[in-house]
Design goal:
Two copies of one chain form a homodimer. With 356 residues, the first copy, chain A, is α/β, with parallel strands linked by helices. Chain A is built from ten helices and 17 strands. In chain A, helix 5 links the parallel strand 10 and strand 11. The interface between A and B is large, with 37 and 37 residues.
């Protein structure tokens, strides 16, 4: 390790939020950097990924016991994926200077044995090829969010040329990539967004065929009918909630509904997600509704990274990042992302890129 | 036609029921038998099939416009599948004496052009081989209800040896066949039933591994846990409603949920099916929930009939029928079926078998 005097900084959760988290639900803790033991190595964080699933983990275990997403304990580091540099190693598989991506949490330094956060995630540490572009892409377009877009559309949604693909959180990290993949595959891509700026972003910059403001509740049905004149064949649902109930009626026969998240209901125990039971639509229109978790596809990430890198170098796949500087600003940036304040992938710059 | 003086008898719907139909929602009408024109032929009904989907059609079009299952108009014949004998023909494809199955409605005689009820059902008239057993099986175990059990389990549910298959309405026409197919395929078959007699029927007579009384609301979770100690891999859902909400929590990771019907909600417009949104479970457990309509599989019925006939002659697949005599008793028998009064396939004997 080059700097023995370095201090670690962590963001810990100190109270379980209700609804939108507050900055007071977090605290910043400084501590000496841990040293690796045999088989371990030390990673210096460069970028931290902010993702909606982290909100899922900030739930009181007493109320959410046994539900998807192991709750984080109070006064412990918030979980999150990091891309960083190996700065000290006692594990022969990881050399000093290598770049890795792993769920090491909201902190500047982390010691790991290379297995990652295996309890909740089959994918351990992934080595990142720094020659393929900005290191941040290992968390975004070429990371789990991009992988989510790719495999949810192609493997679960099984999109086919000419179909209409509706994408929720279309200006977000996964949605923005998904709509472009739908276009590349010859589909009509329609995005659900919450602001006029995001509408311009997905249509003018990313080439979506249309965008719909999901916040305009009264106009939603008409806007969806206009944006999807042939109906919806595939819906990528990261949101759930009342919006899902509204979209059901726009689904075509044999439509596919990929459940990737349900931000709208993260704050409610799973048995309190009361709303429209979709089974009537599922029967009448022979829909297929299926859950998607990206780490189930970890073994196939290289295939997707290779295709998506090619699309990027051909200029067919673009991405935007929303980078906040400094780990201590992660709570504010996270709250901002949950409120829809970002366009593209929300990241925190935790430390500088390695000196080449 | 052998008997020119024969009178037709029809059951017509005279009012749209709310909840369970009443006998007063129907009337019996007598009329001269219609004669076939060019391209048509006349069928004399032998058995009429009583099925839950008929309730779906008895809904006020004003309240259910555009929803699955075209509503029957008041003062017209109730739709239903019939097995009958061709008694007069002006269609060269259908000879006098042939046995056919088709959706010809609740009546003793019907004229058809051989296309069946194509508006709602891709399958037209199916010729029945009288040598394969009782003609009634063309409506039950070897008819659409048996086909539903076969294709929903094997094609949509994709059951695998060693899995647990939970079947709703297990003593009914489809459920009773489904549980046996699950057993034949090496699965644990568990049935949901409403009476002790039905419990004995599915376990002792049909060989289900266990049965659970769905009416015992307080004991349901424990009974399901005991009957499905490894959880539920595939649920055949003909019922929907609150019961569905209860079963979600017993589903295993990567479970399949085949939506075949939703009797519990037939009386409610599709946007009034309020209850638990399953998306939280679908995501957390990577469930697949998919709608099933049997006539999508019409082209493959012969494959299923052949395998199921073999199982029947080997004694591995049994069926029971609940036969009511006389078309005029169809309304009462239908109400009885919807209230769970039948075991096995509910049929009405409309006319005698052909004289050989």
């Amino acid at each position: 390790m080059s700097d023995n005097s370095a201090q670690n900084k962590q963001v810990q959760l100190v109270s379980y939020p209700r609804g939108l988290p507050q900055e007071s639900d977090f605290r910043i803790v400084r501590a000496p950097v841990q040293r690796p033991r045999d088989g371990e190595f030390l990673v210096r964080g460069i970028f931290l990924s902010l993702d909606p699933w982290q909100r899922l983990r900030m739930r009181d275990p007493a109320a959410f016991r046994g539900q998807y997403g192991t709750p984080v304990l109070l006064n412990s580091v918030v979980p999150g994926a990091v891309v960083g540099e190996v700065v000290e190693t006692r594990n022969p598989a990881f050399r000093v200077g290598e770049i890795v991506e792993a769920k090491l949490g909201w902190q500047c330094y982390a010691v790991t044995d290379g297995a990652g956060d295996r309890k909740d995630d089959a994918a351990g540490i992934v080595k990142v090829d720094p020659s393929r572009g900005s290191l941040s892409t290992a968390l975004g377009v070429l990371g789990r969010t991009g992988m989510t877009a790719y495999f949810s559309l192609l493997d679960v949604g099984r999109i086919r040329q000419g179909e209409t693909v509706l994408v929720s959180t279309a200006a977000g990290a996964t949605g923005s990539v998904a709509g472009q993949i739908a276009r590349i595959e010859g589909c009509r891509a329609v995005g659900l967004v919450g602001t006029a700026e995001k509408m311009r972003f997905v249509v003018d910059e990313l080439g979506f065929d249309a965008a719909v403001d999901y916040r305009d509740e009264d106009g939603l049905d008409r806007a969806l009918s206009e944006a999807c004149p042939q109906g919806v064949d595939v819906y990528l649902d990261l949101v759930g909630g009342d919006l899902a109930d509204r979209i059901l009626r726009h689904m075509n026969d044999r439509g596919r509904w990929v459940v990737i998240g349900h931000i709208a209901d993260y704050d409610k125990p799973i048995d309190a997600h009361v709303g429209l039971r979709p089974q009537g639509y599922i029967l009448g229109r022979r829909l297929r509704m299926e859950g998607f978790v990206v780490h189930d596809y970890a073994a196939r990430f290289p295939e997707a990274v290779s295709r998506m890198s090619a699309w990027m170098s051909e200029g067919r796949l673009r991405y935007r990042e929303h980078v906040t500087k400094g780990l201590e600003n992660a709570p504010r940036a996270f709250i901002d992302m949950l409120s829809g304040g970002n366009i593209g992938k929300a990241l925190v710059r935790v430390g500088p890129d390695p000196v080449p």
